[in-house]
Specification:
Length: 856
Amino acid sequence: MSGTQAVKEGRSAFWTASNDEILRSLGAGAAGLPAAEADERRRRYGPNLAVVGIHRSLIAKLGKRLAEPLIAILLIAAAISGGTGDWQSFVIILLIVLFSIVLDIVQEQKAETAIEALKRSVAVTASVRRDGKVVELSVKDIVPGDVVELRAGELVPADGVLLSGHGTLANEAILTGEPYPVEKRPGAAAGPSPSDAFNALFGGTSIVGGEAVMLVVATGGATRFGAIAASVQAKEPPTAFERGVHALGMLILRLTGFLVLFVLLTQLIHHGLSLESFLFAVALAVGLTPELLPMVMTVTLARGAVRMAARKVVVKRLSAIHDLGAMNVLCTDKTGTLTEAKIVHVGSFDADGADSTRVSGLIRLNSRFAGGTRSSLDDAILAGPPGPAEESWTRVDDLPFDFERRCASVLVSCHREMEMITKGAPEAVLSFCTHVEKADGMVVELGAAERAKITDLIEEKGRRGLRLLGVARRPMAADCRHVELSDESGLIFVGCAVFLDPPKASATAAVARLIEAGIRVKIISGDAAPVVQHLVETLSLPARGIMTGEEISDLKDAALVARVNEADLFVRVSPDQKSRIVRALRRSGHTVGFIGDGINDAPAIHAADVGLSVEGGTDVAREAADIILLAPDLGVLADGVVEGRRTYANIMKYVRMGTSSNFGNMLSMAFASLVLPFLPLAPLQILLNNLIYDVSEIGIPFDRADQEALAAPHAWSMQSVLRFTLIMGPLSSLFDMATFALLFWGFGATVGVFQTAWFVESIATQILVIFIIRTAKPLWASRPHPVLVVTSLGALAVALLLALTPLGGYVGFAAVPLPILAAIAGVSLAYLVAAEGLKRIAMRPFARQGTSTAAP
Ligand SMILES: Nc1ncnc2c1ncn2[C@@H]1O[C@H](COP(=O)(O)OP(=O)(O)OP(=O)(O)O)[C@@H](O)[C@H]1O
Ligand SMILES: [Mg+2]
């Protein structure tokens, strides 16, 4: 198949065709598509999303819920009730199903809308040529035939070919697993294999060097990445928290199944098969399942996300909120978070340490003509006045900067002169040098003594907090047209350019707050040791232990795990080492955050439990991040951490209440069905009880959290959930059983009175205990949020109204004599007092695993 054909059919090997062929077959031009044509194509090809169909329609959501086993069973129960002429049950069951589904869907919908809006606010855009102008478009609006302009640090939005490029380097690790950048240039590839496609860029990869103009050939699911993403549904692996909640849900489900079978069996033996006992078992199953847990989690997290956004922290992945609160190690790069990132080129010195305009002139030529990533250092260099003869130099070739060799070279010519000028990390440049240029222009061999002197000079400037770039040159043959990496040798050292980047005054307080919050702060920088150490001293940051990139490259992963905890400063590390450090910290048991803004930070951001970036960061860093800070400030992050912990604390309240009351109810029901000659609650009453209790908890996402719950990183612990359940559950069923005994043997209550009284006891204790177990402190020492007070007491009022007024006749309630009511009130009060007393033991925190090694 020819290349043209491949393009026409939207098939894979489009890179074998020539650009002219591709432009023709796509009906496109270098100036971009007309807007009307683009709209037409958008309709024809659909949105440029790798995975579509994540947004389920309302109908689909409803369908999914109706198909849930519990709801399905309830609907069957309603049908059977209706079929046997029990219209009352039929209507009430349907109402209950409807109400809980609507509650669930509405809440979740609201949460999703809020999150979508947040995500959109930090979404990555692309520069697209339309109607001959360059416009910023949402990536999803890109269509085949579009012409996209790309720079280093940006994501490739779709599959396409290079129309032109300069020093273009792409990172295709997402497709190939290969971490090293691949060179890209225009032309037609020789073979159909993607590894031949030197002229193609693929959606989902990123530009890490140079720039490019790309013609889009395939979008959305038709891209290479789209095909992969669709096959794995691009699902992120669940976090520890998500796994924990899921495991808990499964445990409860199994217990419920077991219990329902048990109750059904005892009912069968006692009373034979009846509709009543079937409905009872169904209602029990419904009542015992924490069916609203997923919704409450989503709603609580979404509310947390909205609150965090108000504090300039935008969450892209909801569960990252939990991880942020659990984070106990934060790794940060230096520039921007600890410094102002206002880099100024303040001067240059030669090999003897004397001021030198010659060095400044050479480094300007390098920055001016360097391809690849233009860094903030280049911007600082070019902000100064041009050198004397700068205009007469022209670029011939260049070797773009990369973070591994930390150098950039240009080949420039002026009249008959041809020079290669190299700049980069001083020690890297110096290692390429064999000669040195003196102040008078003389070039002499670089002896060991002089080399040591220059190294000392560099060290000494670094200790004063000055950032340096070394400058060297090499005269080349006049007919030289290309330079290669091997040409970066035998250089003549000229001197260093000096830069200042003022420390951020607010960083000291922000780091102190993070440490106060139980988070260890580590600095991972590509800069030199003295510069980083000077910064740490200036800001008086508590940091001990330093490790260099060189040391790290000598260590195997296992050895690195053993050593990462010893150091708080990591210097001269490469992007790959940044992510190795993060992974090692995670493997040694920490929950690790990484904040950075550069291309070189993206792998580490991705590797962290909580990847953080800032609004002004590069696209790749922002795309890799779970959380975006709208202000590059660690103080904002400290606020976010507090919010994350609050959200977690509220979810734990729901988990605790759900598990302990469910477990208690299970025990009570099992006991009751063994000893009572009738059902302790009619099926409808159980459903009603469950519904009212669910409503009473709607206020939890709004609740305040105690200062104590915010003070330290938390971690999901199944042990502590189980302990709470095993203490508080039996306690509540102890009082349930006392109520049974009192009603049945003490007062000799009739079925109707018994059920009404127990309904009142059960709902009152379940709801009121919210106020006790929402805090580990004494009840009176922690004030609940008004919304929680209103929802829970409101729900209780409704329950009492239903049970104690003639309204209750519809669901089988009877009038309860005053002495019984008084007795029930007494039992309930006794239960609450006991719960308050026991909660201290039940809520004692478990020691966190993995922190012992990291304690300061
Ligand atoms: N444009 C450039 N040309 C030559 N060398 C450069 C350039 N940009 C950076 N370098 C060198 O590479 C080193 C690492 O880059 P950079 O400082 O961006 O890393 P980093 O890890 O992001 O550091 P930080 O912690 O300060 O954010 C720099 O210290 C400098 O020596
Ligand atoms: Mg950086």
